[in-house]
PiggyBac transposable element-derived protein domain-containing protein
Amino acid sequence: MGGIDSTDQMLYVYMDERRTMKHAKKVIFNVFGRMVLNAYVLYKLNTTQGQLKRAEFRKEVIGDLSSEWLASKQIPQNLRGGGDGPSVGFGLRKLPEKKEKLCRTCSGDNHPEGKKRRSRTVCVRCGLGVHAECLGKHVCH
């Protein structure tokens, strides 16, 4: 019984539950908080030197999970409105339903093993398949 109480105590240190939050959101944040806490416990058990504090570990996990989404929101230099012609737009567009295209940046000849990697997002300007991680290296033709 003591293990459950201490786990809940550790979990609710960083939880910010407000009365205005919907019940489903509270459940999702609670589950996510428990997953991060479990990951931190495993991290502490498997790491002997240079351990992060719990708040730093949480920031690292959240930063790593959100990096793909943030990469799709950044505007690479080659997609900004340039001198030749009107600006068509920039960024990625998700393909409808389950359609996929080959990633222009990391698929085929551009992949070290020649593998074909598929993407569900395309470049807004040229319409070629591009992963969010590959957007910074993508050049419109």
